Amino acid sequence: MRFLFIDLPIALLKFGFYFFVFSTPILGVWLASSLVAYINGPVWLTVFSGILLFPLIPIVWDLWGHRKRKAFGILSWGDRITLRTLVLNFLFIACLLALRPQTSFLALSTRGDWMLEGRQGTAVEVTRKSLFYLANQLEWLYLSFHQNPFEQYADSTLVQPQPSTNQTSTPPPKPSQQASQWPWEGVGIHPAVANMPASAETSLESVAQYIVQQEKDPVLRIKALHDYVADRIAYDAPSYFAGQYPPQDAETVFQRRTAVCAGYAKLLEALGKAAGEEIVYVVGDSRSQTSDLNGQGHAWNAAKVNGNWYLIDATWDSGYVDRSGFTKQYKTSYLFPPPNVMAISHFPDDSAWQLLQTPLTRGEFLRQPMLRPQFFADGLKLVFPTRSQTDVQGNALLQIENPRQKWLIASYSPKGGGQSQNCLEQPIQGNQISCSLSGLGTYEVSLFSGDDRAGQYDYVGQVEFNKS
Q1: Domains of the chain: residue spans and CATH
Q2: pTM for the model
Q3: Per-residue model confidence (pLDDT) at position 322
Q4: 7, 87, 108, 354: which could join 112 in a potential S-S bond, CB 3.0 to 4.6 Å?
Q5: pLDDT of residue 361
Q6: pLDDT for position 169
């Protein structure tokens, strides 16, 4: 009985204490080294930080407190060093997480396995999964400082999604089937939208009813609703850059004809309801390039067609935004793309809206190379690198499966701005691209594809390389 109620609990407490003592410095070094790898800092900084935390500062601290040692007479020199190491590392981790919570999560989620890069084997994969599992436990800290201004419209009572008789507005856990129409090659704006008379645009309801009358096919009807929103609404670039948004409800957007992503999505949701189609509002984060791993709040849609759910982003299909403002450029890249394609750039708050058999964690989402839908529409597959950020000692290498023999070009530029340089002297139809990075630092390598050697090339993706 003594063993069960006294000896065993004491042994467990001692084990837990010493585990905490020894794991805290390890966690501190892991966090610091991942941050260094994430920003492509010097390795000596991590080593120096580790030496400072253990044993240099604890020993100096003990020597400095030599005159007060009598107050700790019951503790041995080893006990004092242990406790001071514990306190220092605990404070170090707490300060980093408090001062840089989002960056800490991003660093651990994307580069937490930096010491395993280039290594393979069962033990390596188990260790890697364990590290990323630990990193994923800090997502709550990341989310507490990462606000999405468009969440407020998700519960709006102005327009509610209209469920079918045997389904709720929550998507089923099973993945959606890929729409046979995607990619919509050579398909322009739906004729019902392109030729819509002014008399049909007097209200949301009149627009929806006109489209219903003109298009009986449910897939093309959803496309027409998407086309109307993508074509008629201009992105509100001034509000986006100011970070202050006017009302984004469907009726306001319909009248003003300008909106940010929430307005596009709410308008499409409302048009769907008026047309008798089930289109819902989805909110989450998006990323458009590798350098913006932190992502930003975003809103898009999901539509139910013939019993299957499909994803839509009318905002990204309407054009693009840069510092000069909004440029209208209609496309259908984000109209019913395969769920795995959408999941590269869109991460919904509700993982069910990924429509994947196995939903991605936020870390898995961030570790993906940033590829555009056109990359997959061209039949391309990125073999290497498989991560959004990769360390290299020499040239940056891209290995691509290119079964359709698309013409490829690539360029690289220093992260944060700088002159862009071509990786190739001329376009290739091969499967390997090497970029001779000009010096140490972090570089963004952009990939472009085209059908003709001397024709137009589309931007299809970007990866990041740390040259050290």
Answers
A1: 2-144 (no CATH), 151-364 (3.10.620), 381-467 (2.60.40.10)
A2: 0.87
A3: 86
A4: 108
A5: 96
A6: 46
**Pairing mode, strands 308-312 and 421-422:** unpaired
Question: Low-confidence residues of the chain, pLDDT below 70?
Answer: 1-5, 7, 14-21, 46, 50, 54, 65-75, 77, 155-180, 289-293
User: What's the confidence (pLDDT) of residue 289?
Assistant: 67
Amino acid at 73: G
